[in-house]
Amino acid sequence: MKKGKLPLIIGMILLILSAPVIILMLQDEYYYQTIDKQYMTSNVVFDNSSYFIEDNGDFGIESIGKAYIQTLGEQPDKTTIPSLKLLDMHMKKIRNIGFFKQSLQYEENIIQLKDTFSVENPLRKQALPEKALSPVHILINNKDFTNHTPVEIRPNNIENERYFSSLGLILVKDKIKNSESLLIIQRFGDEFQTEKNTWRFLWIDNNGQIKKETFDNKERKQQPYRTTFINASFTTPTILGYKSNVSTYYTTYFYPLLYPWCSFLLGSILAIFGLYSMAASWKKDYTSKL
Fold it and tell me: Are 53 and 29 in contact (CB under 8 A)?
């Protein structure tokens, strides 16, 4: 075998295996940086609310907390803002059906979220169900925007975990347009089959204008901001990548350090060495024939 041919072959194999993954990683990083330059997101969280359960099984709201915004980071900062308020919260039982409703205000807009759940009658162990299925009824300024597809809810939680991975609220600031919107995000479908999920965005600006977007997983990848907002609202069981999930795996010593970065570097060195050796060999053969 001609000198340098084997290193060249091995190097090209490593490059062919490593380069596509690196390209996808760089692509995801580009989209992340681009979206980060235009948008800033904050989670809407509800805290300090509580409910009671009486000896006869009746239940209701004991105290109503506040709405906060929380910017994620190493030290999440949770603050109240004048434009966002938790107005009211109700929970009651009629026969063996529980009813829950909360109302919040964003600027001059009133948003209501409602759901229902089954309860045992009489209520055993003085505890509400951990999980149930129910459509989340959404009213914005008394207009019904309900999608009647049942989603998983947690009746025993009246704060953020109630609709975890099924519904989330975030504040979105557009740095370029200098505008702000409240965004309600819903996910529909099996949480373990992301490729079959659909999402719905309800954009509410401070003037009361409402815009809807509904899209599937394929359409999600066509608009990078959708992935950013879905991840920010936790309306996905796992972090989603923009075009693929190569950047969302748990990091190990093997991935992505050894593969694809070290394998790409080693492949480049071997390929260059192989080409150099073959070129030197060809030059030597050529000059010996003169």
Answer: no
Question: How confident is the model over 167-186, as pLDDT tens digits?
Answer: 999 999 999 999 999 999 99
Is position 77 within any domain? Answer: yes
User: Residue 107 contacts by C-beta under 8 Å, 6 or more apart in sequence?
Assistant: 83, 206, 207, 208
Strand partners, 144: 139
Among candidates 183, 266, 288, which has minimal Cα distance to 17?
266
User: Domain containing 131: what range?
Assistant: 38-233
CB 96 within 8 A of CB 124: no
Number of domains the chain contains: 1
Kindly report the pTM of this predicted structure. 0.88
Q: CB of 182 within 8 A of CB of 106?
A: yes
* Mean local confidence (pLDDT), 34-39: 95
User: Residue 14, SS3?
Assistant: helix
In 10 A of CB 77, how many CB atoms? 11
